[in-house]
Amino acid sequence: MEHLFITPAGRLRERWKQAFPGARAAVAVAEIGEATSGPRGIVWLDIASLPPAERSAEVQAAAAFGWPVVVMAATPGESEAFQLLNQGAVGYCHVKAAPEQLREIALVVEHGGFWMPPELMQRFIALSTRVVPTEAPVEPELNELTSRELMVAEQVAHGASNREIAAALDITERTVKAHLSAIFEKLGVRDRVQLALAMNNIPTYSTVN
Amino acid sequence: MEHLFITPAGRLRERWKQAFPGARAAVAVAEIGEATSGPRGIVWLDIASLPPAERSAEVQAAAAFGWPVVVMAATPGESEAFQLLNQGAVGYCHVKAAPEQLREIALVVEHGGFWMPPELMQRFIALSTRVVPTEAPVEPELNELTSRELMVAEQVAHGASNREIAAALDITERTVKAHLSAIFEKLGVRDRVQLALAMNNIPTYSTVN
DNA sequence: ATGCACATTGTACTTTTGGACAGGTAGGCG
DNA sequence: CGCCTACCTGTCCAAAAGTACAATGTGCAT
Questions:
Q1: Are A95 and A77 in contact (CB under 8 A)?
Q2: Residue A208 has pLDDT above 50, yes or no
Q3: For chain B, give me the number of helices (H) and strands (E)?
Q4: Which residues form the HTH luxR-type domain (chains A, B) (predicted)?
C-alpha cells in the first residue's frame, strides 16, 4: 500500500512519516500521473494552504488518478467537506491528524469505506434524513375516527394544545383527552406528536412502546 | 475482535462463519447485555425478517450496547439506510453480502469509519450537498441550531420521546430537555409538537401563546 | 325496550414535558 | 490567562398530557 502526500511544500511532515514510513510526497498529482497500473495506494491531499477556489479542482485531479483520495484540511468545515467528497474524495480529516488517526483512516478507505470526523458524519446523516424521500406513508385509517375525534385530530395535526382544542370545540379539556385516548388507540400512535405526524402523512420511527 | 450476529433465527449463516470463524449468534442484543467492558466487537444486526416498524428500535437497542452496529438488510433502501444510520448504526449492507465483503466492512467500522454500499454513499453525498451548501439554507433558522440540537430536533421530528432521544444520543433526559429548550427558543416554537411539524415544513396556526 | 355507539364530563392518578436556577467540563480565542 | 460557546448534568417545580374508573345523556337500530 503506497501513500502519496500531495502538499504545496513538497515534503513530508514528521507526522506523516511516522504514520507511513514508506510515504512519498509530491507538489501535485500531475507529478506522478502514470502509476495507475501499479499496486493500490492512497492519495493524501493537503489543502490547508490552498486557496479555497482551487481546492475542488485539486480534489478532482487527485481522484482522477484512480486511488482513494483523503483530503486534509486545516479547518474542517461541513460545507467544504461535502463539496470535496462530492468531487470524489473518500476521506476528510484534519491536516494535523495524529499518525494513529491517519492509519485508521487508511484502513477505512482502502477497504472501501468513507471517513470523516464523527461529528461531521453525525450531522450529515441527521441532515440527510430531512431530504431523503421516505416512501411508505403510514396512511392512517381516518375512517375509523368518529366525526368528533376527527375534529380533535385535525387540531392536533396543527399543533394545538388540549386547552386550545377545548376552546375551539367548546368542550372540556377532559373531553378532549377522552377523544385523544380513543384516537391514539384507533390509529395506533403513542402520543400527540406521533398523531400530528401521522395526520400529515409523515412516518415515525420509534413507534414502539 | 468479537463478532455478534443478531438474527431472528438465532444461528449463524454459513457466510458469516466463513467471514468470522469465531462469530457468535443471538436472537436479541438483550441476550448479551453486559460485555461492555470486555474487548471491542461488532454487532451485526439482521433486520431482513424484521417488521419495518420494529427495525429502528432494534437498531437503537443494539447501538446502546456500545459496539459499532452494522445493519444487514434484505433490500437496502436509501430512506431506511439513513434512518437506521441516524439511530446509531455505522454500517448498512446486504444481508447476503459475501464473506470478503463482511471482512472489509468490519475493518472499516472497527476503525471508526462508516460503511454503506457505494451507490448509497454516492446518493448520500449528493443529497447532502443539496442540504448543506453554504448559503442555500432550506430553513434559515435550522442553521442556528448546533450540531447536537439538530440531532435532538431530528428525533422529535420523527416522534421520539425524551427518553428515546436520550437513549439514542447516549445522554440524560435532562440534557435532552436543555437542548429542546434552546431549540424552542431559536426556532420560535412552543412545544415539541410544533417543533415536529416545523421540522417537516408543516405550518401551525395556533402558534400564539 | 333494550342494546349500542357516541359524546360528554367528573375525580384521581401517573407520566411526560418544560422551565427555573445552578452548576460542571472542554475547546477555541484574544 | 480569562472569556465564550457548546455540551452535559443536577434538583426542584409546575404545567401539560395521558390513563383508569367511572357516570350521564342522546339518538339509533334491532
A1: no
A2: no
A3: 9, 5
A4: 138-203
Confidence of residue B129 (pLDDT cuts 50, 70, 90): low
* Element (DSSP H or E) covering residue B67: none
Per CA to C1' distance, which residue is closest to D11? B174
C-alpha cell at B16: 458469516
Nucleic strand D within 7 A of Cβ B185: no
Among B155, B197, B199, the residue to mutate for chain A (most A Cβ within 10 A): B197
Q: Do A208 and B53 touch (CB under 8 A)?
A: yes
**In the predicted model, is pLDDT for residue A5 greater than 60?**
yes
Which residue is listed with cell 375516527?
A145
The CATH number of B2-117 is 3.40.50.2300
Q: What is the torsional sign of CA B170, B174, B176, B178?
A: negative
A92-134 pLDDT, tens digit per residue, is 888 888 888 888 888 888 887 788 887 777 666 666 665 554 4
pLDDT in the model for residue A138: 41
How far in angstroms lies nucleotide D16's C1' from the CA of residue A161?
9
pLDDT tier at A15, thresholds 50, 70, 90: confident
- Is nucleic acid strand D under 7 Å from B179's C-beta? yes
**How many Å apart are B117 CA and C2 C1'?**
65
| CATH number, domain A2-131, options 3.30.300.30, 3.30.2350.10, 3.40.50.720, 3.40.50.2300 | 3.40.50.2300
Task: Dihedral sign for Cα B96, B60, B120, A94, please.
Answer: negative
Extents of the domains making up chain B:
2-117, 140-199
Apex CA B197: angle with CA B138 and CA A168, to 5°?
140
Which residues from chain B sit within 8 angstroms of residue A134, using beta carbons?
A: 79, 83
